[in-house]
Every structure is written in structure tokens, then in C-alpha cells.
Sequence to fold (363 residues):
Amino acid sequence: MPTPTLDDLRRYAVARTLGPPTTLARAIARFGFVQADPIRAPARAQDLTLRHRVAGYVAGDLERRYARLDVHEDFFVNYGFMSGPQWALMHPRRQFAPWDAATRRRARGVLAFVAERGRAHPREVDAHFAHGSVTNYWGGSSNATTHLLDGMHYRGLLRVVGRDNGIRVYAPHVHVTHARHPAARRARIDALVDVIVRKYAPLPALTLSTLIRRLRYAVPQHRDELGEAVERAKARLGHARVDGRDWYWPADEDPRAADHEARAAVRLLAPFDPIAWDRLRFELLWGWAYRFEAYTPAPKRKLGYYALPLIWRARAIGWGNLAVEGGRLRPTFGYVDRKPASDPLFKRALEAELDAMRRFLAL
Fold:
């Protein structure tokens, strides 16, 4: 195949993930994984990501319809929502840090308590057991029950069956045991790599390696096999060296395809949208550095608290910050070239995107 240009990769990166919208179930199955984030500015990241891919999507639809979908909250390369078949590939997890005897005893008690009720809110568990507090990963204090439930969820003893005002509600779960011979393990790891590639392609070599190695959180039992998974991926994926860097994508796709031509559309993306998530790729494709600044002190912010990358056609030309005040959407924009695109269609496309955002937010 002739070598694609960087412009080919730009169009491909946008077109392959921002195609015609579909149903929520099909979008999740197509992605395999949707990253979650609790900040709502103006909506949570998972909702902002899905609104471009799901017809008629309204903020909160994933949470409202979660129990009826084959979707599961869990940690993949980040925390988010996994489609059922991909979620099953990660479990049962093994080889994580062992619990001491007291923690194992508390976990058995909590599991019996939740099993007796069928499902339980952390508040109910805490009221029954009063575990107190623990030191969390950052050196602060956390509710011990919440901490234990998180650990039980990660170990596959519990699954999230829904949320109550944003709080996870749990039920017991037993994962199917998979064959453990080498060929079966490699096939499962490669299938999880395919989820990464399908979601984030085209990928610079460094990002591909980094994401595959992040599977150590999803499948700690296969931690020592991820280096070989990187090499297998590089051998079987589509590949080219563009502007001095190696890029990878699914072997059955062609970054130069004519149907990647960009539509005259504006999209405001979540900070964790697959187009924007990899900051290295973003900068390589569009020539400027996007940064997520929600945790940056206000005086040091350059783009804004929750700046949404702004895509026009197949280029990232700026960012938007959106606030809802008095039931109205209040947008502000910044542009890499300090001014909006000169194309006469841009203003109309931007207004269409803001109208779509208002419908999504039910304003």
C-alpha cells in the first residue's frame, strides 16, 4: 500500500470514529470501551463522547439505560464502560496485591450481605458494618467501606448494576474461568489489544506500546506477557512510517480511503474522546498541544477548566468552554490562529453544533 500522508492520517482519525450515529448498544459494541469521568462541565465525559456516536443521545442516557445494556463498569486502560464480550476477556483477574486476613474476612462478610439482598448501595453496607476510614492511595482518608467495595469490584467479586444519584450500586458476580494454556491467553490478550486499536487508531508506535502495557491493570494475570503482545500487534497491524514516525491501524483499513473526506461539520469533543485522548497523537496530527486543565490551578490555565477540543472538518482548530447559566448555554471559544476559520460554512456549522449541544443537555 502506498504510504499515507499526515493529512491522510488526520482525515482518517476523524472519519473512522465520527461516522454516522447509531444506537447506544451498537455504539458501545463498536467501541468496546468508553472512558468515564465524573466531572460534569457541561456533561460527563462518557456522555460527551457518546453524543456524537448515538442518534438522539441525551446526557445521562447511558446511566439510565445501563441495566438494559450488555455493558459493565470496570477498569480497562482507564476506568469506564466495557461491552460484555470484552469485559469477560479480562476476568477472572489474578495476581493483584494480596489482602491481609482481616480484609479477607471483611470482604466475605460484605459479599454475604450483598448476596442476601441481591444488590446493595454502599450506604447500606456502611450502615451495617461501620468499617470506619482508611488511608487512600494519595495519603488522604477514605471511607473504608467504599475502599473495600472498590477492591471487591476490581477483583470481580462484585459488579456494578447501576447508579443511584451517581453512586455505584453493586451485586455479586462470578466470572467464567477461561482456558489458561498459552495459545488461549495470547488470543485473549490480542482481542483486548484490538479494542485499543479499534478505539484509538491511527496510533503512533509509542502510544500503541503505552496502551498495551496499560493492560496490566485490566489483566494483571497477564502482566508478564504484554511485551510480547506489543510485538505481535506491530507485526499484524497495518503500518507505515509517516514524517519520521511509525503509525499503526487495523490491518483491514486504509487510511487513504476516499470516504475519509471530512464533512463540513464542527464537533466539540470530550477531553477523553478517542480523537483527543492521546496528547502525543493530537499534537502530531494538528500541530498544537491540547491540555486537560481541570486540576491545574486557575491562574495557570491556558485553555480553561474543561476545554473541549473543537474540530472543524478534519482539523482541530481550537477549543470551547461551555457553561449552563439560568437554563441557557454560555459558550466561549479560543482558536489556535486567534480567530475562527474563514470558511463561510464554519459559522453555520458552529451554530448547528451548539444547537445539538442544547438538545443533548435538554435545555
